[in-house]
Write a structure and sequence with these properties.
The chain contains four helices and six strands, in the order αβααβββββα. The chain is an alpha+beta fold. It has one domain: Beta Barrel (Thrombin, subunit H). The protein has a six-stranded antiparallel barrel with strand order 1-2-3-6-5-4. Strand 2 and strand 3 form a beta hairpin. Helix 2 runs antiparallel to helix 3.
Length: about 200
């Protein structure tokens, strides 16, 4: 991310404001030579459940646009797409439901912003290391992939050893950046209303 907004701008405040969140997170340290401009490249072996969520949400977005266009002009097709849209939502909820055994997506606490993330590991990482991150955001089940560079590493527990890793996103697709920004705004609004869910 190369934006250099003035600190007074609202976009910049969102960049640096870290929001505590519970997300599903897959983190894989990678060597520098594997860093690429495409965080979805097959070399990163993104979980199939996450890729499926991406496809479902892409379909969902297409259907929503078509549904609105057909609401008045073609009631039969509108009804079919509305029913299909509900099934897409059910599939996404099934994949992300932690009570569904093999489909479980365990959630962990992180600190999230548009520019980066702080997360916890049981192994230390060096400043300047690279990590491929795949995350699923709730409650929308939006999935994102990014490559981050480690900015800090501090041991916060000893038995067992737990490390807090501060990272900055260095590769993040523009569409994913917009989704992340929307998620942060929704999360902040939920917190202000007092109806944030764990």
């Amino acid at each position: 991310m190369e934006r250099q907004d003035h600190p007074a701008s609202s976009d910049n405040r969102r960049d640096y404001f870290r929001l505590e969140d519970k997300i599903h997170l897959v983190k894989k340290p990678i060597p520098k030579h594997l860093v690429s401009d495409d965080p979805y490249h097959e070399r990163y072996q993104i979980p199939r459940s996450t890729l499926l969520l991406n496809q479902l949400r892409s379909m969902d977005a297409d259907y929503h646009q078509m549904i609105h266009q057909l609401a008045d002009s073609n009631h039969a097709l509108y009804s079919v797409l509305t029913a299909l849209d509900r099934k897409v939502d059910l599939l996404a909820k099934y994949i992300t439901n932690p009570a569904e055994g093999d489909s479980a997506m365990l959630r962990e606490t992180v600190e999230l912003s548009e520019r980066g993330m702080a997360f916890y590991t049981m192994y230390p990482l060096e400043e300047g290391d690279y990590v491929h991150l795949t995350m699923v955001l709730f409650p929308t089940a939006i999935s994102l992939a990014t490559i981050a560079e480690v900015r800090s590493c501090h041991q916060v527990e000893t038995h067992p050893a737990i490390y807090r890793i501060g990272s900055e996103f260095i590769v993040l697709m523009e569409a994913d950046r917009k989704q992340l920004s929307k998620h942060l705004l929704r999360k902040q609004a939920m917190i202000r209303r007092g109806d944030d869910v764990p």
